[in-house]
Amino acid sequence: MIRARRNEGWVLIETLVAMVLLSVGVMAINRALVEALRTRAIAKDYTVARFLLDEKMGELEMQPVVNEGDSGAGAFKDQERFSYSWSVARVDLPTPPIPAELQQLFVEPPTLPEPNLGRISVTIKWTRAGREFDATGETLISAQRILTLEEKNALAQTPAK
User: Fold this and answer.
1) Among the four 82, 98, 106, 117, which has the fewest Cβ within 10 Å?
2) pTM (2 decimals)?
3) How high does pLDDT run on average in the chain?
4) What is the pLDDT of residue 19?
C-alpha cells in the first residue's frame, strides 16, 4: 500500500504554531503580573509616605511657636528609603475688593482678623528601583504662632529674669 506523502510534516507545523501562541500568551500574563506587583509596591510606598507626612506635620503643628523662615530636613529611622524636608513661611491673605454698590453700606471697610497666616510645608521623598518619588503636604496655622525674625531677635535681646 502506497501512502500519499502530501500530509507529512503538518503535525510538526501545527505543534510549532500552537507552542508559539501559548508562549505569547504566557509572556503577556507574565508581563501583567510584573506590572501588578510594581503598581502594588508603588501604592504601598505612597501609603507609607502619607503616614510619614502626617507624622512629621503633626510634630511641627504641636509646637506652640515656630519661626518664620525655619526649615529642616532628615531621614526616618525605621524607613531608611524615606527622607523629609519642611519649611515655615508667612502667607499674606488678600483682601477682596468691596463692590462699588456695597461701599456706601460701610462706615469703614471691614478688615481681616489676621492679615496673614503661617504655612507649614512638608515634603517626603523616596526612591524605588532607581526612580525618585515625592509627596508634599501643607497646612495653615495662626499667624500668632509664627515669630518673625525681628520678634525672634527682640526676644533674644530681652534679659531673662
Assistant:
1) 106
2) 0.70
3) 87
4) 94
